[in-house]
Amino acid sequence: MEAVEAIGADARSGAAAALRHDWSVAEVEALLALPFAELMFRAQTVHRRHFDPNQVQMSTLLSIKTGGCPEDCAYCPQSARYDTGLAAEKMMSLDEVLAEARRARDAGATRYCMGAAWRSPKDRDLDAVADMVEGVKALGMETCVTLGMLSAPQAERLADAGLDYYNHNLDTSESFYGEIITTRTYRDRLDTLGHVRDAGINVCCGGIVGMGESKRDRADMIATLASLPSHPESVPINMLVQVEGTPLDGTDALDPFEFVRTVAAARITMPRSMVRLSAGREQMSDEMQALAFLAGANSVFVGPELLTTPNPGRERDTRLFTRLGIAPMPV
Ligand code: SAM
Ligand code: DTB
Ligand code: SF4
User: Which of 12, 57, 306, 308 has an alpha carbon within 20 to 30 A of 242's alpha carbon?
Assistant: First the structure.
């Protein structure tokens, strides 16, 4: 408890505390166990030290290569191993991608995130993705891609194309990981993150909650993210979207306050990172989303679809952001 008290004292002093990279699981567990009002106060105090609390960054997702993935991620509708009714498609053309990106930009998104259902990209796929990155940047948007595992030269190739962010999630704690994915290891994920970091690309890395993990697993995942040599610039906290046909469909729903607590712990431990209220917004009430923003979330995906599942449409989001007085974050 001592360490948590020290964090609180520091937050109240308003001092520009140095970023920490030595968070223990026990410390994050202690944060998650705080009375809710105390945790929210601490998260909001840290948040206001680094960000305008009324601004939220908006990105739009596009699945450039859908379905047919060889991996066995138990949450994922795109794995070829599960019958989710999703047909495997081939990669979208550059023109199609740029037309979608233009639409997203005109609807207010400042970053375009392109995802592919691959274990890892082939080098010729990477050439096509590099063209997409260059084309989207020319539209005046930031770019992000998520393509699975990368080698060091592949990360360099994407950096040369001008890629701004690479998304690759830890997904959960190292000890729960084996319950969710068996076709690649936690170490593989950390290696890819290292290659992305070394290539000078911003890192987008977070995880999923609501997969049947324990509170300790959530604390462990946050402590691992916050103990990386540099904090990820962007930390997506996804609520599991349950999809029929995936092994995780039917998992007991997580208490919404536990989701909000996880967001707060990410904000407190990674004070300068953008924390993204990511998948799962369609299933959340407006009140729950408001609590996540209060807990320090300051970015979202906008647009009617995530990769393959629904996201709130423009009307619902506009109404919510107006009711909350939230403005888009300028780039
Ligand atoms: N295939 C690449 C990979 O896994 O690295 C990139 C695309 S993958 C769909 C990107 C991330 O989406 C996953 O790491 C996972 O965190 C998230 N995701 C996938 N399905 C999800 C679901 N049903 N609910 C919440 N998040 C999900
Ligand atoms: C992330 O952490 N969440 C996004 C993005 N990175 C690529 C993906 C969410 C996918 C939700 C399930 C789907 O729509 O297929
Ligand atoms: Fe494939 Fe990515 Fe889905 Fe895993 S999360 S099955 S790697 S698309």
Answer: 57
**Residue length of the chain:** 331
Cβ–Cβ under 8 Å, residues 24 and 219: no
Q: Which two tokens stand for residue 193?
A: 């993150």
Spot the catalytic one: 111, 197, 204, 205. 204
Q: Which of 76, 157, 189, 197 is catalytic?
A: 76
308 lines ligand 3 (CB under 6 A): no
Whether 6 shows a pLDDT value over 60: the answer reads no
Tokens of 331: 């780039």
Find all residues with CB under 8 Å of 249, minimum gap 6, and list them. Answer: 242, 243
Cβ 148 under 6 angstroms from ligand 3 = yes
pTM above threshold 0.85: yes
Q: What is the mean pLDDT of the chain?
A: 94
- For residues 299 and 320, what is the distance between their CA atoms, to the nearest angstrom? 14
Is 205 a residue of the active site?
A: no
Reported as type and span, the H/E element at residue 55 is: strand 55-65
Report pLDDT for 17. Answer: 65
Q: H or E stretch including 77?
A: none
Apex CA 258: angle with CA 256 and CA 262, to 5°? 120
Q: What is the pLDDT of residue 12?
A: 41
